[in-house]
Amino acid sequence: MPFDRTHAFANQCAVARGNILLYPVWWLMALFSRRADARCRIYESWFQFFGNAIVGGHVMLGPHAWCVNEMHDPERIVLEDDVICRGLLRVESFGDGRIVIREHVYIGDDVLISSACRVEIKADTLIAHGVQILDNDAHPLDVDERVGQWRQEDKGGRFRGASAPVLVEARAWICTNAIVLKGVCIGEGSIVAAGSVVTSDIPSGVLAGGNPARVLRRLSPGETR
Fold first, then answer.
1. CA atoms within 13 A on the CB side of 53
2. Can you point out the beta strands (E) in 29-124?
3. Rounded (10°) angle between helices 23-31 and 36-49
4. What is the mean pLDDT of each run of 10 residues along the chain (225 residues)?
5. In whole angstroms, how large is the CA radius of gyration of the chain?
């Protein structure tokens, strides 16, 4: 995780979309400011999101925000209104990957969301720093297949792993460094504790944690309002 002066905990701001024609001017101005590194990165991020994603109103990007759209279809990465994104969104080159971020979602620094099927994060959800959400397998379990995959990738090929959709319901909170794997639904208002590995569905209104994550307790009405 990039714990430096560009991190959110260092009070580094995110920046909304402006007039793209003025970006070169802002970039030059940033070179002479004390926040030059962060500002330049944010303007590069906005250039990357243009043409690679559908971005709603009042979206803000942080210095480490980035998107990779292997399918070159902007509709496969959607950020609705009032999203703050400081992480990496990636649609893989295989499958039918889609990433849909509903309104008022926060995506922290060093977050990775990888999709070869579909990842949807519903409104008012917090995705803390260092979280990884993957709806696909990066490598096969069979050792011979895994070695063969690596050799193919070394020559420009790509493994097409199994995938299944991931859904994070509204008002959930996935805490720092948690990992969410394919085929999982996290219920409305639930909290996934820091460092957890989610391999199966989490019901609504609970605190879950561990590896693999399990329900630790039900949240009180005041904690889920």
1. 28
2. 54-55, 60-61, 66-69, 77-79, 84-85, 88-91, 99-101, 106-107, 112-115, 119-121
3. 160
4. 76 72 58 59 84 94 92 95 97 92 97 97 98 91 80 63 94 98 98 98 98 96 70
5. 18
CATH of the domain at 130: 2.160.10.10
In a domain, 225, yes or no: no
Burial zone of 31 (CB within 10 Å; 0-12 exposed, 13-18 middle, 19+ buried):
exposed
Query: What is the rounded (10 degree) CA torsion for 150, 151, 157, 161?
Result: -30
Task: Tell me the residue type at 61.
Answer: L
Residue 20 lies in a domain: yes
Label residue 58 exposed, middle or buried (CB < 10 Å: 0-12, 13-18, 19+): middle
- Whether 2 is in a domain gets the answer no
SS3 69: strand
Q: Which amino acid is at 88?
A: L
Domain count for the chain, please give it.
1
DSSP symbol at 136: B
- pTM for the model stands at 0.88
Residue at 224 is within a domain: no
Report, as residue numbers or ranges, the catalytic residues.
139
Domain membership of residue 139 as a residue range:
8-217
